[in-house]
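Hi C.,

You asked whether I'd gotten around to modeling the 426-residue construct. I have! Everything is below, sequence then structure, no commentary in between.
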Amino acid sequence: MGAIQAIRGTRDILPEEVGYWQQVEAKARDIFAQAAYTEIRPPIFEQTELFARGIGEATDVVGKEMYSFIDRGDRALTLRPELTAGVVRAYIENKLAGKGGVQRLWYIGPAFRYERPQAGRQRQFHQIGVEVLGSADARADVEAIAIATDLLQSVGLRSLKLDINSVGQGEDRNAYRQALIDYLTPYKDDLDADSQDRLHRNPLRILDSKNKRTQEIVQDAPSLLEYLGDKSRAHFEQVQQLLTQLGIEYNLNPRLVRGLDYYTHTAFEIQSDDLGAQATVCGGGRYDGLVSQLGGPDTAAVGWALGMERLILLLQQRETAPTPALDFYIVSKGDAAENQALVLAQKLRHVGFKVELDLSASGLSKQFKRADRSGAIACLTLGDDEAENHTVQLKWMQTRQEVSLAQADLLSQADDFRQQLQQQKT
């Protein structure tokens, strides 16, 4: 029998890549904490109806891309294709609105869509995102955008481009929808097949088409901004003013509509050209009607999500992988020395050091080579003599200086050695 392989559209995140993920996750946690956002962890699968009602049955996500199934209780369930709907369901079910004030929530986790796999896009993918529930203020839109920008810059991305648009309220969008249908109908035969299918079902999605001929056609289409009512226009103008006050540059993109039906007012995407061609790494917007649409109280909300796979791809192209910070690598040979090395490793970990114990039982020369490759600041060696005398040989990897000391001193003088390790780093 052949070896079992990962399912197409999924991939293993191997140890040499995990450092990138941990770097982004750590930065995200710090930035969210500074802005008083708290973490929420909704389930990976939900009732299919949640996404059909929340995202919209006319969207490609619901119509073509969801992993749905009937469970043993004859319930229609779906692996989440995005996390906003699940967060909103949790907000309603757990009565978070009753706690008062604005709920600032963030999440991280996998989602699932049946798409054509390609670089930076998998059928199982991971998102980091934020949701601000309970504020209709334009400042909430801009705060969310600013936090996304801070996060992307904190992990080293510099060539960022922010596109913003307003998709207005329901009445604005309905008027624009009809104007867009009227404009596109004479071109129906020239549109790509997907756009022809969307013409009456979801015409705004045609603006997002990647087909060259369709892009040429929509260049002269009416602008959604021309159909905004007074309230929508005032909100969008305030968003632009606040972005300017924060020094965040932006580009007005009237073709930006995003792919989900729940968006209202502000829609935005952040792109990076660090790969040589622009790629969207973060997208979001306001969705004031979604909470009530899913059975909750009338609640204004705004949020965004970024795709981890695409972001990690950008970081891999830009620099070498982060190296784990390892204080000590322990090499040992001989029964007594190996047993003492195990005990010493645990004691060092208990006082806060990062320690790797060589468990290969191979010769000392091979263990020393692994110590060199480990990135450890110092190597600790125990042989028969050290085991008999309860000592250890310490070698600073950068200077190659060596010293013999009692194992007990290494533990009792932990603070001194911590300072020495820090000096060796610098």
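If it helps when you're writing up: The longest strand covers residues 103-112.

Thanks,
B.
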